[in-house]
Write a structure and sequence with these properties.
This is Carbon-nitrogen hydrolase family protein. It comes from Aerophototrophica crusticola. By secondary structure, the chain is an alpha/beta fold. It has a single domain, classed as Nitrilase/N-carbamoyl-D-aminoacid amidohydrolase (4-Layer Sandwich). It is 25% helix and 30% strand. Strands 1, 2, 3, 4, 5, 12, 13 and 16 form an eight-stranded mixed β-sheet that branches. A six-stranded mixed β-sheet has the order 8-9-10-11-14-15, covered by helices on one side. Strands 6-7 form a two-stranded antiparallel sheet. A hairpin with a 5-residue loop joins strand 3 and strand 4.
């Protein structure tokens, strides 16, 4: 079980359609968070590119080995001495689809873990917004817990938050911290963002770090913001509101074991027959 203290920062950005300025803006916030003492800094989904639709994404997606975001975050980790959860990058795959891929990078610039978003956001919202991630992205097939000095870091991305079984699996595999980099829509964010993230923390007894996109992006798409840091008891320790920036909190990792002792639901699974 993880123990000790960790100062963690969660970044909120308003990314646009050009990779270089998006990375520059993210890098500035990482450096500021590090100056504030953050040892782990987490970035949002689509941190380097926020455009919509297969015809917009595919020309800008790159194989992992050619994506400028990968060496950028490796160099940034080395420069700052921080651990980074990079948020997600659009990595082109051999079959012509794209992986929505997040990385954990250590202070030496080494890639400790990769995670491809498993659950695809294919929805039609009441206000007319429609999304078909599966038209562009290939779903991931593997849950990932990254080793860190503070214990296991469970990885997820945005729409994954609606699938509680993933988070239970991460906690049982050793996660003490779970990251949920996101680009939540405004309607779903208003209705569900806080409650879903708090529920995932409560169910698993994990700290939840949820970086976010915010504001209006290319094509008029809006994202909800409100990047969050949540305790294993479900308390909101920090909320970024609606402006780009970062939030920071000191995480007492002994609270993970404490929450799980008080409500040991991770040990209370029972088999049952279907309805």
């Amino acid at each position: 079980m993880a123990a000790g203290m960790l100062r963690a920062a969660v970044v909120q950005v308003n990314a646009g359609p050009e990779i270089a300025p998006n990375l520059e803006a993210a890098g500035t916030l990482v450096r500021r968070a590090r100056e504030a003492g953050a040892e782990l800094v987490c970035l949002p989904e689509n941190v380097a590119l926020m455009v919509q639709g297969r015809d917009r994404i595919l020309p800008l997606a790159k194989p992992e080995g050619e994506h400028p975001g990968v060496p950028f975050f490796q160099d940034l980790a080395r420069e700052t001495g921080a651990w980074l959860m990079t948020g997600s990058l659009q990595c082109l795959l051999e079959d012509g689809r794209v992986a929505n891929r997040a990385f954990v990078v250590d202070p030496a610039g080494g890639i400790v873990a990769r995670y491809d978003k498993i659950h695809m956001f294919d929805v039609d919202l009441a206000g007319g917004e429609s999304y078909r991630e599966s038209a562009t992205y290939r779903p991931g097939t593997r849950a990932v817990v990254a080793p860190t000095p503070w214990g296991g870091l469970g990885m997820s991305i945005c729409y994954d938050v609606r699938f509680a079984y993933l988070y239970r699996a991460l906690a049982k595999a050793g996660a003490s911290i779970i990251t949920v980099p996101s680009a939540f829509t405004v309607p779903t964010g208003r209705a569900h963002w806080h409650v879903l993230l708090r529920a995932r923390a409560i169910e698993t007894g994990c700290y939840v770090l949820a970086p976010a996109q915010t504001g209006v992006h290319d094509g008029g798409r809006g994202t909800y913001g409100h990047a969050l840091i949540i305790s294993p008891w479900g308390e909101v320790l920090a909320d970024a509101g609606e402006e780009p920036g970062f939030i920071i909190a000191d995480l007492d990792l002994s609270k993970v074991a404490e929450a799980r002792r008080m409500v040991p639901s991770l040990t209370h699974d029972r088999g049952f027959e279907g309805p």
